[in-house]
Amino acid sequence: MGRVWKFGDDVDTDMIIPGKYLVFNDPEELAKHAFENVRKEFSSQVKPGDIIVAGRNFGSGSSREHAPLALKGAGVEWIIAKSFARIFFRNSINIGLGLIELPDTDYIDDGDEVIVLPEEGIIVDKTKNTEFEFRKMPEFLRQIIDAGGLINFAREMVRK
User: Fold this and answer.
1) Are 101 and 125 in contact (CB under 8 A)?
2) Could you tell me the residue range of the domain that residue 84 belongs to?
3) Domain with 116 in it: what CATH number?
4) pLDDT tens digits for range 100-141
5) Within 13 Å and on the Cβ side, how many CA atoms surround 33?
6) Is 144 exposed, middle or buried (0-12, 13-18, 19+ CB in 10 A)?
7) pTM of the predicted model as reported, rounded to 2 decimal places
8) Are strands 2-6 and 51-54 parallel, antiparallel or unpaired?
């Protein structure tokens, strides 16, 4: 179960991690600056297992991998949005960050406690005692996320 951090539409990669921090590649270092110009409290209050819920076009902007790295380094377990920018989606999968497209994100509020059940395709909002169904991710993408990213997945495949 994780706390929801709610954002709106068109959250771009510069909002997630300002460009001046692109000199870092360490996820934990990047996490210290996540959303610092949007929600100053995020980096100091986010906890492992927390969940970002957003509107349309989450992760738009540049193709930099730093944005999903910062969120993974902060301990974000899932990002639930109405839609994702294509490159952000791919970069997130590649590093093992879980993403869910859900058209009903308007009904989940900042601070709600949420459980994601990926195998069942269900999100449970414990705060409101409601459930949302989502289209499950294709199995091969789920395997990449479960492995911790594409590189780890490829290593596992080579060892088999």
Assistant:
1) no
2) 2-159
3) 3.20.19.10
4) 999 999 999 999 999 999 989 999 999 999 999 999 989 999
5) 19
6) buried
7) 0.95
8) parallel
